[in-house]
Amino acid sequence: MTLLERDRFHAGPSPRPGVPQAQPVHVLLMRGHQILETFFPGLTTDLTAEGALLLDWTADWQFLSPWDWRPKHVSNLKSLICSRLLLEWYLRDRLLQMPGVNVQEATTVNGLTVSSDVTRITGVNRTTSAPAKLTTR
């Protein structure tokens, strides 16, 4: 599988032009967190070691209901809080460790090619900024 990426990647989590919303803090909500942990075992441990926070929604935050402030209590409703830069960098690094996965950086997709009967996508038309860098691990 080849991922075509318009930007060039950095060695660690750092800003790039194609992701202008990456600087603010992001919350990986509970279900997304659970799904990613099944695909990338150790995600929680690894990201918290890199500075992400594990948030227990009912113990770490207090909510105001129409009647009063809700009491805090420990639950299993946990989410990860980190920058999108960190999350994206980590997931890309783990994905590229999988056999058969590679990335072609500095590549823009200009359109799709289709079968003669127009029922299947058969490829992409692309432009690559010179020099193209194919990343595999």
Mean pLDDT: 86
In this structure, how is the largest beta sheet organized?
A: 3 strands, mixed
Helix content: 10-25%
In the predicted model, the low-confidence regions spanning at least 5 consecutive residues are none
What structural class do helix, strand and pairing data support? Answer: alpha+beta
Write down the overall geometry.
elongated
Q: What oligomeric arrangement do these chains adopt?
A: single chain
Give the helices and strands, then pairings.
Elements: E1 2-4, E2 25-28, H1 30-39, H2 43-49, E3 53-56, E4 78-83, H3 84-96, E5 102-114, E6 121-136
Parallel strand pairs: 1-5
Antiparallel strand pairs: 2-4, 3-4, 5-6
3D structure, described in words:
The chain is elongated. The mean pLDDT is 86. Helices cover 22% and strands 34% of the residues. The chain has 137 residues and is of the alpha+beta class. The chain has three helices and six strands. It starts with a strand and ends with a strand. The strands form two sheets. Strands 1-5-6 form a three-stranded mixed beta sheet, with no helix packed on it. A three-stranded antiparallel beta sheet has the order 2-4-3.
